[in-house]
# Entry
Amino acid sequence: MAVAHTTRSAHPTRDTVRPSRTRSSASEASGSRALLVITVLALITPISFEIGSLYMLPSRLLFLFTVPYLVVQTLRGAYGRLIFTDFAIAFHVLWMMITIAIHHPSQAVTFSASTALAVLGGYLTARATIRNVSDFQFFAKFYATVVILMFPLALTESLTTQIVLANWINALDLSGINTIRDVNYCCRLGLDRAQVAFVHPIHFGLFASGPVAIYFVGLRNQLNPFRRTVATLLIIATCFMSVSSGPFLTAIFQVMLIGYMIITHKYAGQWKLLLWMTAGMYAVIEVASDRFGLYALASRLAFNPGTATFRKLLFDIGSAQVARTPIFGWGFHRIPGMPNWMPSTLDNFWLAQAVSYGYPGFISVMAAFLYSMIRAGRGLLQKGSDLYNARVGWTILLVSLLLSLSTVTIWNQLHSVIFLLLGAGQFLFLTSEPDETRTADQTPDRPRSRYTRFAGERGKSANRSTPGDGQRVSRSR
# Structure
């Protein structure tokens, strides 16, 4: 993970830092926060219903109306210029629809439409509604609030085995309205595995782990450390109620990166150092272990070591299928040779993309995530500014998602949540801030001349400034 920063480590204040400037008026404008709130609430509403023969979720019904409009507006440039991630997501959706039509022609419309709505609905909603750092901070606060409010529901479910929201909905006895069912997985550590509003405990845990970094880091200049620490602990506790090792380790991984950021904040090459340290430690594990390094780590960190063994077997079966059908994948068919006692899901989002849609489908979605992480580390931002904090928090989130999605298969609401989180930071590629900050004593005594020899340079000279002492800017990739 590479995050660019300046050599100046002091946190800027409102008195010394000029507001960030954006490169396009489209990205500078604030998005529709009402649509963002409605979308998140729709994603956590645990009901389903049918319209004719179509299976519907609140979020799917919402996206049915919003996605066509958002696609048109995005192509018009209403949310800023088109960027690489937009093209990668568009290709992924197009290739996914082609492969579904090949393998499931009788269900091509319903399968491809529902999956495309899940991907585009989450991603484009974020692109349209999170268009500056203020929108990002609002999202971080709202997302964290939603997760914290889920804590008493998750705690009750873990202690009593009763899914509170589902029971409330069932008590209403609404005709045609269904809710999530209890998966009845065996408890761990004496706790029932909470689902709260999702079809699976892992899905709930992954959703609950999301706001850790974007809240604690992204709101450093808005909230005091005590408030951020308490809220973050509640978020982690909520995630823990799923009693799932993947999501919980995702939250802990974010905490570790945050701790590293705080400890090494004065070191200009902190993220390059982390990359080299991580590579070195993994090399040691790979050499010292008699198994694949990632598998060795997973088996030791999982709540149930047997889970890691099971996932390793799934990985081997899935990889063999990808080798047999590398271009158009295998669709949603059960993989040949898979034992009857094994479920058809692969417990690995990245592997599932390769198996279902072939290498093109996998590479396109992986490229969207990798490009976002790498591109986020480029450009010059004042260390400690709102934009810098948003970028660091979002990059930490993406790194954690990259790892956690290798332990879970996602569908329905969580599918949209993941792409909502991916889209939440795309505004960073359409905005910038001044290369330097100016304090009152650095302001020239006499005003600048508005006149230049060349009219074309007037705008340039107005924005040109001289860095103050100790404000040498460095780039880290």
